[in-house]
Amino acid sequence: MATPSKTPPGADPKQLERTGTVREIGSQAVWSLSSCKPGFGVDQLRDDNLETYWQSDGSQPHLVNIQFRRRTTVKMLCIYADYKSDESYTPSKISVRVGNNFHNLQEIRLQCVDILINKNLTCRPCVCVRQRTNEPISTFMIQIAVLANHQNGRDTHMRQIKVYTPVEESSIGKFPRCTTVDFMMYRTIR
């Protein structure tokens, strides 16, 4: 039996994480979905396996809600999609909204790389910044809304969603970043 594939190296947004400039914070959030088929929910969306996916079950828009316990700085979202496998289930129009709760969400403009340029498995890295100051967004909640799918598909598939925050410099002083494998395993206390 083959081992499930992880994020392919060519589309790996974790390169920034390896260099120590960002870190993935999705595990610190509470995730909810507008709908899902049984066995195709949040667990599959967050399992680091690109063979599994979330599949919505209902009318559009399909929503992914990401709620943090405290105000959190978000620099980048990465949304994985696979047109080759999913075809009409692949999102073609996505809206990202941020706010303190469901009642004050505002759509943000994202600096995004085109989704599915070559129609292979891709990550769509979206840089979340304030329009005027170009700083990362600080928020309690992110809502990703799938507004349309390719070929007018009804339900949607998303392979993975990753949420990244910038790594802040030490207030003690500037130290060189330790990016070797030996140092990286001790960079976070859990």
TrEMBL record:
Keyword Cell division: yes
GO terms (BP aspect): anaphase-promoting complex-dependent catabolic process; cell division; protein K11-linked ubiquitination
Residue stretches in coiled coil: none
InterPro entries listed in its UniProt record: APC10/Doc1, APC_su10/DOC_dom, Galactose-bd-like_sf
Residues in DOC domain copies: 1-190
SUPFAM superfamilies in UniProt: Galactose-binding domain-like
Key words of the record: Cell cycle, Cell division, Mitosis, Ubl conjugation pathway
Superkingdom of origin: Eukaryota
Entry similarity comment: Belongs to the APC10 family.
Subunit composition and interactions: The mammalian APC/C is composed at least of 14 distinct subunits ANAPC1, ANAPC2, CDC27/APC3, ANAPC4, ANAPC5, CDC16/APC6, ANAPC7, CDC23/APC8, ANAPC10, ANAPC11, CDC26/APC12, ANAPC13, ANAPC15 and ANAPC16 that assemble into a complex of at least 19 chains with a combined molecular mass of around 1.2 MDa; APC/C interacts with FZR1 and FBXO5. The C-terminus of APC10 binds to CDC27/APC3. Interacts with PIWIL1; interaction only takes place when PIWIL1 binds piRNA. Interacts with FBXO43; the interaction is direct.
General function of this protein: Component of the anaphase promoting complex/cyclosome (APC/C), a cell cycle-regulated E3 ubiquitin ligase that controls progression through mitosis and the G1 phase of the cell cycle. The APC/C complex acts by mediating ubiquitination and subsequent degradation of target proteins: it mainly mediates the formation of 'Lys-11'-linked polyubiquitin chains and, to a lower extent, the formation of 'Lys-48'- and 'Lys-63'-linked polyubiquitin chains. The APC/C complex catalyzes assembly of branched 'Lys-11'-/'Lys-48'-linked branched ubiquitin chains on target proteins.
Name recorded for this polypeptide: Anaphase-promoting complex subunit 10
Species name: Scophthalmus maximus (Turbot)
